Amino acid sequence: MSVDIATVKRVARLARIAVSEEEANRMTGELNGILGFVEQLSEVNVEGVEPMTSVTPMEMRKREDVVNDGNKADDIVANAPASDRNFFQVPKVVE
């Protein structure tokens, strides 16, 4: 895949970045170099390689997924002008 000047200008316009003609020419070469490198990476055989979360072998720390209210209901409604049994009370707005 290669990028031309029109594509660079279109992407710059979509990103709302002002790009001069000289900058567009320079970016075309840079983007083509980056895309060439990415194409090289697709040629690497990674079959049998497990994904890594870090460069050092480690297991992700996990916590038990428990649903709770955080035991902070009193703190949450403490600054409310009106509350009842840890629920906010608001004026009626619909008849």
UniProtKB/TrEMBL annotation:
GO-annotated biological processes: glutaminyl-tRNAGln biosynthesis via transamidation; regulation of translational fidelity; translation
Recorded catalytic activity of this chain's protein: L-glutamyl-tRNA(Gln) + L-glutamine + ATP + H2O = L-glutaminyl-tRNA(Gln) + L-glutamate + ADP + phosphate + H(+); L-aspartyl-tRNA(Asn) + L-glutamine + ATP + H2O = L-asparaginyl-tRNA(Asn) + L-glutamate + ADP + phosphate + 2 H(+)
Enzyme Commission number(s) from the entry: 6.3.5.-
GO MF annotations in UniProt: ATP binding; glutaminyl-tRNA synthase (glutamine-hydrolyzing) activity; transferase activity
Keyword annotations of the record: ATP-binding, Ligase, Nucleotide-binding, Protein biosynthesis, Transferase
Purpose of the protein: Allows the formation of correctly charged Asn-tRNA(Asn) or Gln-tRNA(Gln) through the transamidation of misacylated Asp-tRNA(Asn) or Glu-tRNA(Gln) in organisms which lack either or both of asparaginyl-tRNA or glutaminyl-tRNA synthetases. The reaction takes place in the presence of glutamine and ATP through an activated phospho-Asp-tRNA(Asn) or phospho-Glu-tRNA(Gln).
Record note on quaternary structure: Heterotrimer of A, B and C subunits.
Family per record: Belongs to the GatC family.
Protein name: Aspartyl/glutamyl-tRNA(Asn/Gln) amidotransferase subunit C
Organism field: Shinella fusca
Lineage: Bacteria, Pseudomonadati, Pseudomonadota, Alphaproteobacteria, Hyphomicrobiales
